Amino acid sequence: MNDMGMRSKRCLSRLCGAAGLLAALLPGAPALAAPAANAGPNDALYMYKGADRDQKLLEQARKEGSVTLYTSLSSGESTPLIAAFEKKYGVKVNLWRAISDQVAQRAITEGQARRFAMDVIETNGSEVEQAAREKLLSEFYSPNLADLPPDAISSDRLWVSDRANFIVVAYNTSKIKREDLPADYAGFLDPKWKGLVSIESTDIEWMATIIKKLGPEKGMKLFQDLAATQPQMRAGHILLAQMVGAGEAPVALTVYSGEVESLKRKGTPIDWAPVQPVVGRPQGVGIAKNAPHPAAALLFADFVLSQDTQQLYADLGRIPVSMKVKTRMNNFPHVMIDTAATLDESPKWTKLWNSLFLKK
Description:
By secondary structure, this protein is α/β, with parallel strands linked by helices. Helices cover about 45% and strands about 20% of the residues.
């Protein structure tokens, strides 16, 4: 046998050995007859559906002792989320938090270097999709998947949406009356809004989704006309919401409703309205293919998709995806960003956005 054949044999032996170990941990798990092209060492565990799943998953997670989470959740959400998980299961969460593109970049860089530290990624759907395309994630089963709408599960089934961000119009309640807001974005073309409107400078997906929703001709005209009004471009959704609350930006067209809710609870004079069409940005959770704590990773995914945690999201002013949790935060027509399509078409939409709003 030549060197290449020997290496292939050793690789196959290691993969089958890992599958055998997982089968031992979870008796009754289906054997992996032949490794798939994108097979991971934890696949049998991740897809196990036996009646004793929950008990064995908890036992193994407690043996592992911890789970490492990469997320863009703000401290206001991540702190109570982690506290609830640790209290319920007795498994420690090691948190690494940053903005969404930094979360994705760290996960991808570590994966390329074959340094497997991450167990779970939870951030913007686009960034989770990037990690999936780098073959860093594995499909997983959770009984809570049955409570999600079909579009909450990615087409490749490598990640699922656990919450959403709705891009809405925010306004300072000391400067703007709610009844004066238009019903749709075209209403902001009225000259009376000139000089009052701001837009977050990276919301390319928002524009692309609305153009697709309205159709190329009508959608393109809307954004050409909107750009002609010269809205103020601001970097950062949180900063933009804060500027609205401070009265520095009386009206913002692209603010996350959850950020507004957080400021409202602190007494800030700010509110939001679902000006049509409302665009939703899915936030996703995925499990690392090579997670060092695979059982704890799967347990954490179960946890964030559970009805109790979905209700916790709602209580914190975030938008849950579970159909078992009802909230005014999503009780209006909306269209979700197609993250895979937007990534595929990124150069086209980025070029258009830059020419219209950033004058590049």
